[in-house]
Amino acid sequence: MKTSIFLVLFFIVGCASDKKSSSLSPEKVTNDSFKKEKTLKTSEVQDFYEGNAKALSPALQDETIDRFNSDELTQFSESSDPLLQISILCKGGKYKEAFERAATAFNRYQKVALYWNMIGSCHLNQGSFRKALLFYNKALELKPNYVPALNNIGVMYSRQGIYQKAQVAFERANNQSKFAKTPRYNLGKLYLTYGLADLALPIFHGLLSTSPNDVDLLNAMGTCHFLRADYKNALNFYEQIPVNLRKNPEYGLNIALAMKKANRPEDAKKTFLDLENPSGNEMKRYYTSIGKMLGDI
After folding, report:
1. Tally of CB atoms within 10 A around 252
2. Label partner for 57 (CA 20 to 30 A): which of 9, 26, 164, 210?
């Protein structure tokens, strides 16, 4: 009987921008300050983050703000980039303020694909899929085959369970830029959703080679090997996840199950007993099922 495993990887929305600029102070106000802002073009705005900000899972942090948790986002507090601030507001669920900021930035960024892509992602996070698609398509009008929009269309379809269309979008994004990591990550995640570990494995292996301590990639590699019933190699990756994070049921339950399969029952029980209380009905059900497998702890 094939054992099911809880997949804790999430489809990642991309991409981002963090251009350095200084805020305008009162003593610097001149007549020039009241001139209409120049309308930028897509080519004048970068699609990646730069600077010294660090995420716990850093492999994709230069392409997407989704890699930063709420505490890590404070690293961007000094940035005056309006597109970055819109993205942060959306990630924090402050949609009204985000859309107000977007309206203010319209004149300057209306010809920038990234601007429309970010508004689309705000709607996506709200679950407004039709609106999200409209804005992603607007970004594609400005820049055909724009990788962030193609990737996010894949995320949109994934969240709706339309996996075949998601696959087409991720593959199209990946084919447009072999250097973009986010579409590759999402494609690997989609393969794991199908249980196609052999296809997912080389994707995550390549990403891990550039960021060997990324927790999500270590977890993904462990999951790939688990699905191939290679429990020893699964644990080689799972056990590289920091000990404090293994107490999180999202990681620890799969680690305990892999230990059980690798004939390490005592380690499996200890790992299970050290877990924090699970949250969410799906995780609670998985927690209960793993407990029964380990001997009704």
Report:
1. 22
2. 164
Instruction: Tell me the H-state helices in the chain.
Output: 82-91, 95-104, 106-109, 113-126, 129-142, 147-159, 163-176, 181-194, 197-210, 215-227, 231-238, 249-261, 265-273, 281-293
Neighbours of 263 (CB within 10 A): 10
Q: Phi first, then psi: what are they for 41, rounded to 5°?
A: -105, 160
For residue 97, is pLDDT > 60? yes
Angle between helix 181-194 and helix 215-227 axes, rounded to 10 deg: 30
Q: Which residues are CB-contacts of 97 (< 8 A; sequence separation ≥ 6)?
A: 89
Choose from 29-43, 46-60, 149-163 the range with maximum mean pLDDT: 149-163
Q: Give the Cα separation of 280 and 258 in Å (integer).
A: 22
Alpha-carbon gap, residue 280 to 215, rounded angstroms = 21
Helix axes 181-194, 197-210, angle to 10 degrees: 150
Instruction: Read off the pLDDT of residues 214-235 as tens digits, 9 standing for 90 and up.
Output: 999 999 999 999 999 999 999 9
Residue identified by tokens 């970004």 is: 139
CA gyration radius for the chain?
21
First to last CA, the chain: 22
